[in-house]
Amino acid sequence: MRKLNIPVGISDFEKIRNGGFYYIDKSGLITEILNEKAEATLITRPRRFGKTLGMSMLESFFDIRKDSKELFEGLEIAEHQALCDEWMNQYPTVFVSFRQVDGLDFTGAYDMLTMVIADLYNKHLYLLDSKSATEFQKTAFEHLAHGNGSIKEVKSSLMLLTTMMQSYYAKPVILLIDEYDVPVAKANNNGYYNEMLDVMKGLMQALKDNQALQFAVVTGCLKIAKESIFTGTNNFVSDTITNSRLNEYFGFVQSEVDLLLKDADLTMQAENIKKWYDGYHFGAFDVYCPWDVMNYLLELQRNPKAKPISYWKNTSDNAIIRSFIDYAGSTITNKLETLMAGGCIIQRVDENLTYDYLHSSEDNLWSTLYLTGYLTKAREEDYKGELPDGMVAL
Predict the structure, then answer these.
(1) With contact defined as beta carbons under 8 Å apart, do 251 and 289 qualify?
(2) Considering the entire predicted model, what is its pTM?
(3) How far is CA 317 from CA 236, 309, 311, 314, 323, in A?
(4) Where are the domains of the chain?
């Protein structure tokens, strides 16, 4: 076995590349996003599938305040010289993650949100010296940077920041929003859903008719469409696990796991790891859960006799799933027994879920379990029956 520096729990691209950690090259994601030419791209994947690391990579590549050439040396994107010349470190870039926004009540969660916005604004204090910024903009900026902006200022904070950056650099801004749905999901679990939804809708106005934007990329676990968070966003592309062109960039595909095991001199574990961790079928790709694979390899380096376990299941409070169990009737119970016995169930999957109506139908349970990674689409060899239109074997 060869010891690798495995970056479990590190989602900072620059830290991984500068720290000598093992990195599976996902830089082709940059080319895909640029080729799409979408005004806004929403990427939904289960937790721990590399969304934040992907967004961190995008920030490193585009941010005009960075010099990232060395970080990308040897990666796939570096082979596209013309694209790198045009885009690498050429655009003002905003990267914000809402994954830490949580609280038992709205006041607590809103305080967390204002701190996230304050931290973001403090990274761009140079804008206060901009000759193109108005006094009104500077006043609102200072309020937000100190964490005491009004609710109206917080709602419009991403719009204000992108507008000021566009004026400062005389270039449109790239906006990267990670885990956009976490505040709404946490709010739904704790009873302040409507208040948090109202704030998040305001923040997402930065995606709609924003003249300061070059484009935006947004990630989350679920596509919240019925609540109109993204209504009015022009040229909006959604990339989910059911219908995707980006699946090889989130999670590990077979060729990547083969290379990883070869580099670690652990090819004898290939069958074991495949049996345990390649349970996902996204779009046309078989996908390994990266969190499980990396944690198991790390454990093998410490203890070569370690047995595989499910590391992924303990990375969340699973509140949505628990809430459904309270509603479970005999039909749901029977289907769960079928699944746990290794069988398939035939269900309609709705990607456009809405938290406030989550428990309005049984279909929503199976859709949620599928979209958040607890179930996966059956491979063709696992289910050979005819499927009615709109139905999926899970």
Answers:
(1) yes
(2) 0.93
(3) 31, 18, 13, 8, 11
(4) 25-239, 252-313, 318-393
